[in-house]
Each structure stands twice: as C-alpha cells, then as structure tokens.
Specification:
By secondary structure, the chain is an alpha/beta fold. The protein has two domains: about 20-35 and about 265-355, Aspartate Aminotransferase, domain 1 (Alpha-Beta Complex); about 40-260, Aspartate Aminotransferase, domain 2, CATH 3.40.640.10. The chain is about 40% helix and about 15% strand. The protein contains twelve helices and 13 strands. The chain has helices spanning about 40-50, 60-70, 85-95, 110-120, 135-140, 165-170, 200-205, 230-240, 250-260, 260-285, 305-315, 340-355, and strands at about 25, 80, 100-105, 120-125, 145-150, 180-185, 210-215, 225-230, 290, 295-300, 320, 325, 335. The protein has a seven-stranded mixed β-sheet with strand order 2-8-7-6-5-3-4, sandwiched between helices. Strands 9-10-13-12 form a four-stranded antiparallel β-sheet, covered by helices on one side. The protein is globular and about 60 Å long. The mean pLDDT is about 95.
Amino acid sequence: MTGPQPLPQILDITPYKGGESLKKAHKLSSNENPLGCAPSASEALVQVSQALATYPDGSAKALRTAIAAKYGIDADRIVCGAGSDEIFQLLGRAYLQPGDEIIQSQHAFLVYRLVAQAVGATVIDAPESNLTADVDAILDRVTPKTKMVFLANPNNPTGSYLPFDEVKRLHAGLRENILLILDGAYAEYVRKNDYAAGMELAGEAANVLMTRTFSKIHGLAALRLGWAYGPASVIDAINRVRGPFNVSAPAMAAGIAALEDDRFMGQSIEHNETELARVKTALEAAGFEVVPSVANFVLIRFGSADRAKAVDAFLRERGIVIREMAAYGLPDCLRLSIGTTEQDDDVIAAFEAFAEAG
C-alpha cells in the first residue's frame, strides 16, 4: 500500500544538520555565545513561566517596540519570528514558486537553499572571491527568473564580510522587483569602520529586508527568536503567511530583557574580539591556515578533506566538537566557534598537539 506522497521537490531536500555535541565535551560547532545570556534575560524567563496558560501576543508588539527603541526604527516595519530561519521560510512561502530563482554566494548559509527547494525554486550559486561574496558575480547571474538575492553579511561559514559600499552597489544593480535579503546574524560582532548591517538601506528601499537574530550575541539560541526590518509591503506579506502565535511569550520576554542589557552585550563583544585574535594567532603559529573572520567563529583550511577529517577525529578524542564543512562545499575545512577562555585554551593545545604529532 502506498501512503500519501510529499511534493516532488521535498524529497530532493537534504535536511539541515545543526552542530553536533558530545557528553562532557566542548561544543564549539554552532557559533553560540560562550558567555551564555544576560542574567536579566534568564530572570525574565522565570517570571513569565508563571503565566504559561495564556497565549502570547500574536503581534509581538512589546518586543517590536523594544527593538524599534533600541535601533531607532519603525516598529510597524518589524516582524518577529522563531529565529531568523523562520523568516526566511516565510519569505519563500510569500514570494517564491516553482521556476523562480534565488541567488546566493557560493558558500552561503545552508538554510537559503532549503527555503528555495521547499517551494520548487532554483538556487543559483555565485562564485566567491577569496571566500568573500562577489558583487559582480552575483549581478552576472541575475535573470528574468530571479526573485531573491540572499546575502549573509558577515557570511557563515566563511566569516568574511562585504563593506557597505559594496552592498549598496549590489542593491543598485538589482531590478526593483528582486528582493535583497541582508542576513545580519553576526552583525553585532563586526568591528570594521566600512561595515553596516543594512538597516538604513532596509529603511529606505522598497526591495531590501534586513534580518537579525537573538541566537548569537544575545545567547538565546534555545528560545528561537529573530526579527526582520524592511518595507511595509514586505512585512505585510510575511505577516499574512506566518502563524498567529509564531513567537512564544518566554522568548519575547527574554528578548526584551536582552535588548536592554548593554553591559552583557558589551562583554560578549569584548570577549569575542580578544579570543578571536588569540585563537587565530595561536593556530597560525602552529602551522594552520585560518581564514580572516569578523564573526564569532573561524574557518580553518587543511588542504585536503582527509586531513580535515583527521583533525576532526583528533579533536573529538579530546572532547572537542567543531563543525565539518563538506555540506558547504568546503570539505577541506572545519569551522571553529570561539569559546570561553578555558575552552579556547584546550582547543589551542589540541591543535598544537596534532601539529606536533605530524
């Protein structure tokens, strides 16, 4: 007997696989905040747990108001989701159909591909230049079928970024009916004068949407919380296809508290800046190639897939779990999240031991 069959394009999807973890291990595979989350966010979670029988506000008004106040933007042009991943999925439902095309950089975040595949759209990969998105390569691949361009800035898993002038040049080269999605999941970590997450562009243009997440700098990955800012018409379309209660009350309460805790955010940025430089310097001194990163992780190149697998196995034997990159088209690479100072000490020691062992 043959049961119900899913749509043909669904069977072509390779499910997204998150960073692995092991018992009693350093999990440095998912780019999580090693400092945890703001104490005030934890306290807000405890308080809201006393009222779990009540449905959350479906419009997320209090959270949108807090985000708007934090960044000086219009709350009515913000939509919240269960992580920025959900917002990408909602965009697919609202704007894509079979035969449409999306463009992404060569080593883009895997979820963009899944969004397109779920609705039968085609993914066009634009070659990168030195593991960095190439504006000209993206524009060269625009066709009459192009509906969306996804740009993670900084990019996961490479850690590279495009200066804002290049982002504006990309936008200027797109048709008005192509939606440019600027994924700023790691925006808070960037300490470069020529960088901008795209909030100004999303506020002015009719075809630019900026997304952000609470999973990284705010340390709320377990609660699944993200948001997007952009044109009223795009926000309206997303609201028409999202679930009525897509963001939980605990997530909203913790998110509001996290936004107000500048001290914790500053500590997280300072820790990452210090440890990112220290880890990169130490691994390079041990003879490894580390790709420059502005995020809270580094991509390490080993020259061959076999050597990358050997390093991965060596680290796992020592209770250190990082991320293999074959699914991203980088089989000779591993991605390492920045951890606590103690975790990073162990990581550095493990890499040095591997190098010494030959």
